[in-house]
Amino acid sequence: MGPAELADRLGRWSAGRGPLYLLLAARLRRLVDEGELPPGTPLPPDRTLAATLAVGRGTIVAAYEQLSVEGRIVRRRGSGTRVAGPSRPGPREATTAPVFLHLLEPRDDDVILLACAAPTSPPPMLQSAYERALSQLSAVEGDMGYHPSGHWPLRGAVADLYTRRGVPTDPEQVVITNGGQQALSLLARAFVQPGGTVLVEAPTYPGALEAFREHAASLHTLPVGLDGFESRIRTPGRRPELGYVISSHHNPTGNVLPSLARRRLAAAAADADIPLIDDEVLAHLSFPGQDVPPPLAAFGRTVISVGSLSKSVWGGLRVGWIRAARPVISRLARLRAVHDLGGDFSAQVAAAELLPQLETLCQDTAADRQASHDHLRAELARQLPQWRVPAVTGGQTLWARLPHGDGDSFTQTALRHGVAVLPGGGLDAAGGSQEFIRLHFCAAPGTLTEAVHRLATAWHAYGGEPDRGTPGPRVMAV
């Protein structure tokens, strides 16, 4: 692609606040993710593009390097810069990014999806909740259903849920969202300025990374649990705008942050007046006899809790929430109203019926989830004994370490053998975790057995040798 054509597609890329290289990287990232720059597209040389955009060469170099770390472009001496992935002759597919969405589109093959973690069937309890909700809807009068902050009874049910868990909460401290991903997007929009620093775990949930990158955040990584957060925020001139942590049944490692570590983390954030997002989407998914400590919000006033029913109940129930201080909730409600005057009213009424029973529902399914976890680990140990796959105490995923090779290239081999898994590099903002892949254990035992058989066949074909070609595109997954 010539520099003039690229400049035209970039549009008003510099119209924003923050370093130019981050603004340019953010716009290029969007063009790649939306398919405007398909895999294999050559990008102009540094100096040529700098002259066209009337910026210094260092701006182009820094933007390219940022996208290279993320795996979106490949830079090679002597062969230039290209969008990651092989070039595709002819018309491109309807969507090229995120790959997760592509995997969920109707397919003629029988690929087993171990990259997308969520219950695949609604429980009977949800049907009962909808039946009760429909009877309530028949009596609704004088209500348009426009509620940017959410259905008031549902906000009350969420508040009660936190109160039962030791965090006294008022309904005015809750805003309802269309799932946990919209919650993260709203928070990124509210708190992240272009070029602002967000502290994240490495690895972490990739949907959060994409939400922050969408607003041109500068992502700085710390180990799981945000270990080192206190010393990092004390570094002069490097104050972060936001922190993001998954304290319970961490996605992807399964880690549960101990009470003392929660107390210190929340206190440090409060002392520095730094908003700290605690992603609690998986918090209720403990195995039998495995309790988690109180929510992070119990220990600090700047903690913002995010929850959702898509992991604990059903992926198709797009109801989530944010619990925070009242001023934060008011701000988020105003931001949401710009894009959405409210969520699905009937789903929220059903969720309000269901939420008081959430702990019971999760307890009832805990033994089955643990059995699936144990079954998947046993099959992996039997067919792929070289892999290191630690046990977890809840959640939905296993973090598997390959003995050699890399996750990016192996996942491509696995997909050709009929199973989709998530490469670890896409979950690490620092570009690490290349030797890992993420698997979920939400499927039925028979499906998991077949998936491991296909993984073993793929591993044999792969040979464990790293692919020296270009890595596959980053995967946004849940």
From TrEMBL:
One of its GO terms (molecular function) is transaminase activity. It comes from the Bacteria. Residues 18-86 form the HTH gntR-type domain. InterPro entries: Aminotransferase_I/II_large, HTH_trans_reg/aminotransferase, PyrdxlP-dep_Trfase, PyrdxlP-dep_Trfase_major, Tscrpt_reg_HTH_GntR, WH-like_DNA-bd_sf, WH_DNA-bd_sf. Coiled coil: none annotated. Keywords: Aminotransferase, DNA-binding, Pyridoxal phosphate, Transcription, Transcription regulation, Transferase. Pfam families: Aminotran_1_2, GntR. PROSITE patterns: HTH_GNTR. In the C-terminal section; belongs to the class-I pyridoxal-phosphate-dependent aminotransferase family. This is PLP-dependent aminotransferase family protein. It comes from Streptomyces oryzae.
